[in-house]
Design brief:
transmembrane; globular; membrane
Amino acid sequence: MSADPESAAGRMSTAPTDIDSSTPEKRPISSENSGTINEDTDTTDPDALHRHQTHKTDHGADADGLGRMHTAASSFMASRLSLPHEIVFVFVVCCAQLVTQAGLGQSISIIHIIGNNYGLDKPEDLPWFMAAYSMTVGTFILISGRLGDLYGHKRMLVIGYLWYAVWSAIAGLAVYSNVIMFDICRALQGIGPSILLPNGLAILGSSYPDGPRKHMVFAIFGAMAPSGAVLGACFASLFALTWWPWAFWVFAIVLCLLALLAVAAVPAPPIRHSEPTTFRTKVKQIDLLGASVGITSLLLINVAWNQAPIVTWHEPHTYILLLIGILLIPLFFYIELRIAPFPLLPLEALKSTDIAFVLGCIACGWGCFGIWFYYLWQFHLELRGASPLLATAQVSPVAVSGAIAAIATGFLLGRIGPAWTMVAAMSAFLAGITILATMPIDQTYWSQAFICVVVIPWGMDMSFPASTVILSNAVSKRHQGVAASLVNTVVNYSISIALGIAGTADLYVNKGGRSKEEVLAGYRAALYVGVGLAGCGWLLSLAYLWHDYQRNKAGGGKK
C-alpha cells in the first residue's frame, strides 16, 4: 500500500537478453538507476549484462559515457523536465497506486448493493468481489515487471491503464449478466493494477537520483494508497445513489484519461535494442513456462480457499483444486532452478534468512489487514446499519493517518532502522485488528472504531518500506527489482487468501447468521483469525529483531 524510495531503485524484474557467446571483458556493472559502474557485479553473468543494457537504454546514455564518474543528475529523466511537466509526470505515475486501491474501495463500500442486484442472500458470496481483484493483483505482478523490462515500462504503464479501463467498463455491464460474470470481471480488472504497480515503481526509480526529491516522490506514491481506497469508496457510494454500474463506467473513463496523460507526460525512453525478436526468444526471456505454472498454482490455491466458504469443504472440487495448486509449487521451483534459462524468480538470490523473516511478517500483517478491511466495512454496513456514504466517512481517517505514516516512516527508517520499524508495524496491525475484534455493536464510533482506523494505516505504511529496505540489503544489487516485486506479490496475494481463510471461520461459527448475534459471532471468529495472523507477524518481527541484533553484535556476520 505504500512504496519506499529504496525499493524502486531496482528493476521490477531481471529479464536477461541474448548475449554474444564470447566471454565479455571483466567489467563491473551496476543495477543502480544511475547506470554507473559498480565493483561488485560480475559482467560474465548475462542477467547483469542485460540490466546494464537496460539502464543504458532507459537513461539514453551512450555506452562510451558510462563510467565511475557518470553520476550527473542530467542522466535522469526527471532532471530534463520543466516543473509543470514533472508535476504531471509524478501525478500520472503515482495514480497507479491510487487507482489500485480505488479498485478495492469501490466494491467494498457498495458490496451489499451489488449483492442485492444479483439476488445473493448468503454473506459468504460477497467476499469474492474483493478477493477476486486482490488475487490477480498479487498473482501477476512478477510477470508484469518482467514484461516491462523487455518491452518498456512506459508502454506497459499505458497498457495497464487501458486494460484496467476496459475491464472496469465490462464489470459495469455485468449488471445485465450474473454474479459469476461480475466476479470474472473483477479478477480481470486486477490484472491492470498488477501491470501498473511494478512498472510505475520502475519508472520513478529510474527517473530520480537518490536524494530528498526522490524520497518525496516515493512518499507521495505511498500516501496515494489510503487516499485511493477512500476515494474509490466515496465515489462508488455516490454513484450508487443513482445506479451502481456508473461507479465502474466513470472509473473506466478516468483510467482512459490517465492512459492519455501517461502517453503525453511520461518521458519516452529510446527504443530498446535488447527487445526479443523471435517467438522462441520471447518465451525464454519471459520464462513463460515458469510463469504459467506459478500463476496457475497461486490461482488454484486462492480459488479453493475463497470458494470454500460458499460451497463448504465437503465439496470434492474445493480440496482437489487446493491439492493441485499445492502440488504445482514444487514443480515451479524445479522449473526455476533446473529448466528456466532466465528464471522469473531467481531463487539462488533469495537464500538469506532475512528474506524468510520479512516475507513471513508481510504475509501475516497484510493478511490481517485484508480481514480487517473487509470486516470493518461489514461491521458498519451490516451490524450498525450505516449507509455506504456514512461508512465511507467513518473509514476516511485512514487517508490522513496513512499519509502521515508514509512520510514519518521515511524519517524513522534512517533513525531506528528497518528491524525496529517492522516490529512497530506488526504492533500496529495487532493493535488495530484486536480493537475491531472486541468492538461491540452498540457503541459510539469514537470509542473503538475511530481508534482502529487511525492505528492500522501505520502497520500498512511502515511494514512495506521496512520490508523493501531489508530485502534490498539482503540481496545483490542486480536483484533489487525482484525483491521489490516479491514484496508487492506477497502483500496483495495475502489480502486475498486471508479473506478466504477468515470466511471459512465465519461460516462454521455463525450458525446460518439468522440474527445479529450469530452474525457478530461469525465476524468475531473471522477477526480472531486476523488477530492470530497479526500475532504471528509480531512474533516473527521480534525474532528478526533478535536475529539482526545478534548479527550486528557479532560485527555484521554472514546473513
